Amino acid sequence: MALHAEDTYWHSASLAGLRVIVTGAARGVGKGVTAALLERGAAVLMVDRDPAVADVAGTFGVEGRAVPLVADLCDRSSYQRIVDEAVQTLGGIDALINNAIATNEPKVFTDITLDDFDLVFDTGPRATFFLMQAAYPALKAAGGGSIVNFGSGSGTAGQKTFGAYAGAKEAIRGISKVAALEWGKDNIRVNVVCPFAQSDGVAGWSEEFPEVYNKIVKGIPLRRIGDTQADIGPMVAFLVSSDASYLTAQTIHVDGGMGMYR
Ligand SMILES: NC(=O)c1ccc[n+]([C@@H]2O[C@H](COP(=O)([O-])OP(=O)(O)OC[C@H]3O[C@@H](n4cnc5c(N)ncnc54)[C@H](O)[C@@H]3O)[C@@H](O)[C@H]2O)c1
Q: Which residues form a coiled coil (predicted)?
């Protein structure tokens, strides 16, 4: 029997009862991942600095399971507030998806300013690190859980004009590996996903640099750019599920086989 995308093992309750925080959930990969988790029955605290996150949550039509929270990850008090909100509204935390990041790149290395650098490091590794730290007690109290952090082929392979972004993404991988080693005893797994998908962020970049974008897409073995919900979402759903119970400290490129690693 040929296996098609519609012949799948998951169903509308395969993640029922799972309580998940997703950062950067108002658009792009975070929105697609949220949709994939919701359609499998999970409850999601959708965090974003963009107030549109409330409307986005409403469009899912899953009363009580898509809870929006406006929070700016540059604000140091946001980490604990996010965790407290998840514990209060969802009743605990089983998974944390650190997806959000903001960047002023692409810019050549010598044009990247201190403010550009701080933006990408504050929203990337700093927020990821301290949200993990804040969520740890709740994850442990739940008997363990799964953290999925987002890396990038721009970091694992390097990519011109993404100097600070690449550094921030690789910092996230380092943080993830250490937490996986320390928290394995608590049954808390930590993995990194490096996606390539048609997010709002990529759409903006592709309009600005269509030639670079088209060349990259043509070079993807699967000959298409990923879909945030249908291609990236299922990997995150797998990682937060018990199917991935023996998987930790890994980096998985969900990129159609681009092989962005050196
Ligand atoms: N899309 C891709 O192909 C691709 C490739 C490699 C890595 N990634 C990674 O995937 C993740 C998502 O990327 P994307 O393309 O969907 O990005 P995006 O720019 O489309 O979306 C990012 C989201 O994060 C939110 N955000 C930004 N700063 C915030 C802050 N200070 N506080 C709270 N929320 C904030 C934004 O409002 C937005 O909703 C990122 O970690 C990115 O590095 C994506």
A: none
Nearest to 243 by CA among 9, 5, 2, 42: 9
Whole-number average pLDDT of the chain: 96
d(CA 5, CA 170): 32
Residue nearest to atom 17 of ligand 1 (CA): 201
107, 112, 104, 179: which is closest to 149 by C-alpha? 179
Mean per-residue pLDDT, 178-193:
99
Please identify which residue in the block is written with the tokens 């030639």: 211
- Which domains, ranges and CATH numbers included, belong to the chain? 15-198+227-254 (3.40.50.720)
Report the Cα 104 to chain-centroid distance in Å: 19
| Contact indicator for 187, 133 with CB cutoff of 8 Å | no
Using the mean position of ligand 1's atoms as its centre, give its distance from the Cα of residue 2 in Å: 35
165 CA: nearest ligand 1 atom: 43
Active-site residue, 165 included = yes
pTM here is 0.97
Going by pLDDT thresholds of 50, 70 and 90, the confidence category of residue 3 is low
Q: For 67, what's the count of Cα atoms within 13 Å in the CB-facing half-sphere?
A: 18
Which tokens go with 119? 């933006």
User: What CA–CA distance (Å, rounded) separates 149 from 163?
Assistant: 20
| 22 in contact with ligand 1, CB cutoff 6 A | no
Instruction: Answer whether 94's CB lies under 8 Å from 142's CB.
Output: yes
Q: Is the shortest distance between the CB of 73 and ligand 1 below 6 Å?
A: yes
